[in-house]
Amino acid sequence: MEIDLQKIKRIHFVGIKGVAMASLAVWAKESGFGVSGSDVAEEFPSDDVLRRAKIRVLPGFDASHIKKTKPDLVIFTGAHEGRENIEVKAALASQIAVLPHGKALGEVMKGKRKVSVAGSHGKTTTTAMIATILATSGHDPSWAAGCGEIFGLGLPGHKGNGEWFVAEADEYVTDPHHDLTPRFLWQTPEVLVVINIDFDHPDVYRSLAEVTSAFVKLQSQQPALGVTVVNADDVASRALMGGMTEIMSYGFSPNADVRITNVGYGTERTFFTLAYRRSIVGEFALKVAGRHNVSNAAAAASCCRAIGISWEDIREGLLAFGGTKRRFESVGEVGGVRIYDDYAHHPKEIAATLAAARAWYPKERIIVIFQPHTYSRTKALFYEFAKSFRDADMVAIADIYASAREHETLGVSSQILVTEIAKHQPRVVYAKDYEKTAMYLRQHIRNGDVIIFMGAGDIYTWSRKFVNKFTK
């Protein structure tokens, strides 16, 4: 369905609290559309974003919401039953235009020069870094990033007056019930940035080869004069090296066009040096931790260099970037104990975050509270999860947070996962829920510890609850 945005006055978002939906809703509000949405009552990282954007959120899902808000367009997410959602059905019955989020994002990007940031891990951070560089260098881009907030920049969505639109490009499918098109295939980027390609979303992809095929197809949709920015350190991404677009590679590899030559750490700072086609560009600094974020920064720098941004503007933009909500986000301090919140829910993300924490805090005890996300992912990556906590000193595993799309446990549980983790990290326990976790922490924490609450489920609320409990 083609949508003429010039004829749209009001947009209603079904499942508006999803971070990708919220960022698009903010873009729509700033673009002058009337915006409303609906979602479950559960607290989400996007709640504060929607409040700040003054976007009305109706509780639950009900056909009456469509009559009440009178939208010209309804955008829905693959969660909450997708096209089968009662509000989406009511809109269709009233002949109101309906679009899934992935297609809607592709539609609003039309008419702009497009940067799409794809990858199994790191795409949110890299999207935010690129948007920050463009914004601080005076280009006033539009952007849509899947996070609660971009620190140092603002809300995760923005309608800019500049020529560029920077968007996160998600490989998950458009609507699991009706449309298995990968969501990023609704985008046709002039510049495609691919951070990495990994096996994830086992509920819709059967193998790494299937995931890779989706990325190759996205690259094939680029215009003839497009640029693909590729991670030279990622083996799976080599499938993109033979594409018809111009290739700019980055990474630690000596063969990378933009090469990371040195990495060092100061007090809550990360320093690194870049070389461009064998000539040293200079030193850069970040306010975020870890080699994986140095790699993300090199990807952002490569993208911005490809579109004509100076190295000095890139340096200033990267330093201005303060991180994103739920990516090793500092939540507070309790009795000399630092508390962080992190979205990591894949073994490689867990390992990268813990390596970053260890780099910043080499002598402190690192305690991880992890909530596995979905039975399908836990089962498919079971043994990888078990090995991913080696940089932690103590680990507590909460119950698995199931997807709304899941209806069986697939024979896995957090207790079984704890048994497997213990083969690699003996200081691991099962802590069923927040109450058990808080009890465990009260018994074990001491001055100087670093606690990281980690996962993609409702564990988002736990870190703040723990801080609030002990600071009152």
Note down, in words, how this protein is organized:
The protein has 472 residues and is of the alpha/beta class. The protein has three domains: 5-99, Rossmann fold (3-Layer(aba) Sandwich); 111-320, Mur-like, catalytic domain (UDP-N-acetylmuramoyl-L-alanine:D-glutamate ligase, 3-Layer(aba) Sandwich), CATH 3.40.1190; 329-471, Mur ligase, C-terminal domain (Protein-Tyrosine Phosphatase, Chain A), CATH 3.90.190.20. The protein is 32% helix and 25% strand. It has 15 helices and 23 strands. The chain has helices spanning 19-30, 47-52, 64-69, 86-93, 101-109, 123-136, 208-220, 291-306, 311-320, 347-360, 375-380, 382-386, 414-421, 434-444, 460-471, and strands spanning 10-14, 34-39, 56-59, 73-76, 97-100, 113-118, 142-144, 157-158, 164-169, 173-175, 179-182, 191-194, 227-231, 246-251, 258-266, 269-276, 279-286, 329-334, 337-342, 366-371, 394-397, 428-430, 450-455. A ten-stranded mixed sheet has the order 8-7-9-6-12-13-14-15-16-17. It has a six-stranded mixed sheet with strand order 18-19-23-20-21-22, sandwiched between helices. Helix 6 (123-136) packs across helix 8. The radius of gyration is 22 Å and the shape is globular. The termini are far apart. The relative contact order is 0.10.
Rg over CA atoms, rounded to whole Å, is: 22 Å
The CATH architecture classification of the largest domain is 3-Layer(aba) Sandwich
* Structural class based on helices, strands and sheet pairing: alpha/beta
Provide the CATH top-level class of the largest domain.
Answer: Alpha Beta
- pLDDT < 50 runs, ≥5 residues: none
Tally the beta strands.
23
The level of helicity is 25-40%
Strand order of the largest sheet: 8-7-9-6-12-13-14-15-16-17
* CA-based shape: globular
**How many domains make up the coordinates?**
3
What fold name goes in the CATH topology slot of the largest domain? UDP-N-acetylmuramoyl-L-alanine:D-glutamate ligase
Instruction: Work out the helix count.
Output: 15
**Overall average residue pLDDT:** 92
**Head-to-tail CA distance between termini:** 53 Å
State the fourth-level CATH superfamily of the largest domain: Mur-like, catalytic domain
* Sheet having the most strands: 10 strands, mixed
Strand content: 25-35%
